[in-house]
Amino acid sequence: MEASAKVRGTGIAKRSAEYIIEKIQEGKAIIALTENKEWAGFCYIETWQNEEYVANSGLIVSPQFRQSGLARMIKSKIFELSRTKYPNSKIFGLTTGLAVMRINSELGYMPVTYSELTTDEKFWKGCQSCVNFEILQSKNYKNCLCTAMLYDINIKEQKNAKKENSISV
Prior knowledge:
The structure is a single chain. It contains seven helices and six strands. By secondary structure, the protein is α+β, with helices and mostly antiparallel strands. The protein has a single domain, classed as 3-Layer(aba) Sandwich (Aminopeptidase), CATH 3.40.630. The longest helix is centred in the middle third of the chain and has 16 residues, at 70-85. The radius of gyration is 17 Å and the shape is globular. The termini are far apart. It comes from Flavobacterium columnare. InterPro entries: Acyl_CoA_acyltransferase.
């Protein structure tokens, strides 16, 4: 993940192989494989603040499968996994990538300020290994180069209720 982020010029928090294996064993990861069982992509989830928040993290697609729609498929599956395992949680992600922002928007995420995200210190400590951490720290964890995106089922339900109760003229 780290090497891929460097090639693309984006920030990403480093995660150990043990951490990634743990996510896989816990059923908190999506792994994309080819028909020949070659690795093609990956993403995982982590919960914060007693499962109030779920972060979709570590999206990576093998270079030969980029621009193929695989990232969209992985993001859709990880979103579905998040909603299934944690139906009442707010789902969020941080990204510097336009493609991921577009995919997140299609899934119903909205751009938000960092104040709308988890306040769990462990989450923000995970950013320490990102190349942009000094920026985050200098801004008192209020913003960085990443765009924060949030899916909140409660907001979606409120918007749907307003649409149903709207007045036609």
